[in-house]
Amino acid sequence: MAVMSYLEAIRETLRQEMRRDSRIIIYGEDVGVRGGVFRVTEGLQKEFGEERVIDSPLAEAAIVGTAIGAAVNGLRPIPEIQFADFIFPAMNQIIQEAARIRYRSNGAFGVPMVIRAPFGGGVHGALYHSQSVEAFFAHVPGLKVVIPSTPYDAKGLLAAAIEDEDPVLYFEHKAAYRSLKGEVPEERYLIPIGKADLKRTGKDLSIITYGLTVTYALKAAETLEQEGISVEVLDLRTIRPLDVEMILDTAKKTGKVLIVHEDNLTGGVGGEVSALIAEHALFYLDAPIRRLAGPDVPAMPYSPPLEHAFMVTTDKITEAARDLAKF
Q1: Catalytic residue numbers?
Q2: Contact 48, 20 (CB under 8 A)
Q3: Across the chain, which distance is largest between two alpha carbons, in Å?
């Protein structure tokens, strides 16, 4: 089994899927000749040609709008938004059109489209290149929102997203691209969208998280294990739809829950997860549900010390979990 980086797993999945299905097209800013700003699509235009890997103008609304039209007419577009921060000009197309076409057409039309976008901080991208945007889309019925945390999951979830008959937003944490590596099977496999993954079992408390912070949570759990605190780590993998059953199972099992994400605290995914637990598993809890998230400030700072202060880290998770365990 090959060892790949998170980025390589995504690129090889795109290559494998394009070989499998001639309806798949990729387009976005610099995805062709340059291979994308992070080189995720490097080499794909050379193999599949300019008609299937297309450099687009700097126009996110047009990128997504034309992808919707292509999807409705039988293609399988995978538009790339260069940075998730740039997705806002396309919000109207995504929410008003892509998310609702199946509903408003009484099931006659779907939008089998995967929007890929790198998100998150930790790379000194500052205000317009570091945002976490997932909660905006997790609010919208008709969309699926996927955030893989490992190279293995990145491949299986991307293949499943491409096969889905409805629009999927596939967010890739840019700090994970080259820092995370793992074994990835060569053969095609699918990881079901909407299914969480128990990355580590434990009995004293649960950490529920997704994306890059899964890695940090697992490191924190190793540290706490040496202190006699057994931590369970649940990776949501999909934040719309949430795997409610697994969320409630881990909350009921350990009785203490810490929810972790990099996005701002207020209105984040953690609030929805917390509400589900409070509504359906309140009497299993031994402590108040806690959340560890990015602060409610307008943007990611450029200054390295301030950026570090913003980011969720292994140390912050360890401290929060240790404090929760004492309750």
Answers
A1: 129
A2: no
A3: 59
Rounded CA separation 236/196 (Å): 4
Q: Is 253 exposed, middle or buried (0-12, 13-18, 19+ CB in 10 A)?
A: middle
For residue 183 the two structure tokens come to 């074994």
Please report which helix (H) or strand (E) contains residue 5, including its range: strand 2-5
> Which of 190, 184, 220, 182 has its CA nearest to residue 202?
220
pLDDT tens, residue by residue, 201-253: 999 999 999 999 999 999 999 999 999 999 999 999 999 999 999 999 999 99
Can you tell me the distance from the alpha carbon of 229 to that of 92, in angstroms, rounded to the nearest whole number?
46
Q: What CA–CA distance (Å, rounded) separates 174 from 83?
A: 9
Phi, psi of 245 (to 5 degrees): -60, -45
Q: For 183, phi and psi rounded to 5 degrees?
A: -75, 135
Q: 54-72 pLDDT, tens per residue?
A: 999 999 999 999 999 999 9
Cα 211 from Cα 302, distance rounded (Å): 22
Predicted structure pTM score: 0.97
Buried b (16+ CB within 10 A) or exposed e, 225-235: eeeebebbbbb
**C-alpha closest to that of 68 among 35, 109, 105:** 109
